[in-house]
Amino acid sequence: MIPTKFPDNFLWGGATAANQLEGAYQTAGKGLSIADALPGGQDRFKIVNQPDFNWQIDSNKYSYPNHRGIDHYHHFKEDIALFAEMGFKCYRFSIAWSRIFPQGDETSPNEKGLQFYDQVIAECLRYQIEPVITLSHYEMPLNLVTKYGGWKNRQLIEFFDRYARVVLQRYAPQVKYWMTFNEINSALNIPVMGQGLVAAQGADAMVNRYQAWHNQFVAGAQAVAYAHQQRRDLMIGCMLLYATTYAYDANPVNQLAALKENQAMNQFCGDVQVRGHYPSYTRSLMQSYGVNYDDLEITATDLQTLAANPVDYIGFSYYMSSAINVTDPDLAKVNGNLVHGVANPFLEASAWGWQIDPMGLRIALNELNDRYEKPVFVVENGLGAVDHPDAQHLVQDDYRIKYLRSHIEALRGAISDGVNLMGYTPWGCIDLVSASTGQMSKRYGFIYVDLDDQGQGSGRRYKKASFDWYQRVIASNGAEI
């Protein structure tokens, strides 16, 4: 029988990222980040994939909505108060690396940046909201890309280690839950946000993506080691983009293709960070992308570091599933959360073409739980949609409630299956700038923010219908959805 309630200690909350909501992009000593140089709009990845893209900010040619975000930097008290009103048990947010080390390669941190997060954390704790902090969420100092070439350069291990040690030493006494790199595996298809790689930095050579991953694996493992030195009960996880992957049909060719896609996208980065070693299929996987494992710079010390410092839990995003077909080139392709696939005839899709599959979330939870036998945490999930406020600024977002309800039902089913599920933090709990499209109009939140795609508007916050609904969900610990 499926339980009607969630565990008593279940972490209900919401999730955001510094570069998508804070704004104040050059305030109090903050340096430029890669997110600050990404143009807004649905063509942002087409633009950065051009061979002449050079990270120059050209406001005459492009808009940069991340520069303002929703000005959370100046409104965090108001925003966190709204989260508390909803009943959040936790709040997942990220620290902007470029606020702490503006250029990334300094030896001393920017104290004003640290003081900002002192205040954010204190505000959370004032409402008994557990902070869940991501160390690197699609944001790194721009200088580390333009001067050092991004994460393919091993020097970034040292720079990240310095940054991680500073924030962990400062905040570990107050903050129990951490994650290293957001959606680290997304670089398989889009390496710009997670690895800082564009064509000019060698993004088109897959060997650079795998080297960048290795450097991040080592940097993450070092952060795990230091975190555990600071606090014995601290939990620090990895964070994956997970899209449950199906073969389109029973054709064995498609079944094998789906298995390989699963290894490449869903499993590889998790296997290294959770198990502490490279999986048996590593050489075969890399060869399929034209990469020779022996060409990577991987030291014996690196491997020892990975083995000694696996993560404590698996955080992951889930928005959609993916169907794989390699036997019929005429099947329609679909958009997705940085993943590829064909249209699944059994599923509906969002306005952005992302296929809606709550059962896929239950499957994902079982797959991760069985594979790693460590706690799992759904740290992103939600529906991007265009919201239309009425004259009283109310958004009647029944479509969002329907999406989230079905996925919470999937969580309940997974718990009944025996999955060790820590919590649930829907993405963009307050409207923010979309990472995939650079738009405000692609909204996820329970709270409407009056800003458009050009950053114009009052910036005022208004509760959507989903605000009261989610408040009831949390108050009932998932019994009323």
Which SSEs are present, and which pair or pack?
Blueprint: E1 11-15, H1 18-21, H2 44-48, H3 72-86, E2 90-94, H4 97-100, H5 111-126, E3 130-136, H6 143-146, H7 155-171, E4 177-181, H8 191-195, H9 206-230, E5 235-241, E6 245-247, H10 252-275, H11 282-288, H12 300-308, E7 314-317, E8 322-324, E9 348-349, E10 355-356, H13 358-372, E11 376-380, H14 398-417, E12 421-424, E13 447-449, E14 461-463, H15 465-475
Parallel strand pairs: 1-2, 1-12, 2-3, 3-4, 4-5, 5-7, 6-8, 7-11, 11-12
Antiparallel strand pairs: 9-10, 13-14
Helix pairs in contact: 3-5, 7-9, 9-12, 13-14
- CATH C-level class is Alpha Beta
Mean of pLDDT: 96
Outline: globular
Percent in strands:
5-15%
Assign the structural class, choosing from mainly alpha, mainly beta, alpha/beta, alpha+beta, or little secondary structure. Answer: alpha/beta
Detail the poorly predicted runs.
Answer: none
Give a quick account of the main beta sheet: strands, pairing sense, barrel closure. 8 strands, parallel, barrel
Q: Output the radius of gyration.
A: 21 Å
Give me the CATH superfamily. Glycosidases
Number of DSSP strands?
14
With helices defined by DSSP (H or I, 4 residues minimum), what is the helix count?
Answer: 15
Strand order of the largest sheet: 1-2-3-4-5-7-11-12
Count of separate structural domains:
1
Share of helix among residues? Answer: 25-40%
Order of helices and strands: EHHHEHHEHHEHHEEHHHEEEEHEHEEEH
GO cellular component, one term: cytosol
GO molecular function, one term: beta-glucosidase activity
InterPro entries: GH, GH_1_N_CS, Glyco_hydro_1, Glyco_hydro_1_AS
Keywords: Glycosidase, Hydrolase
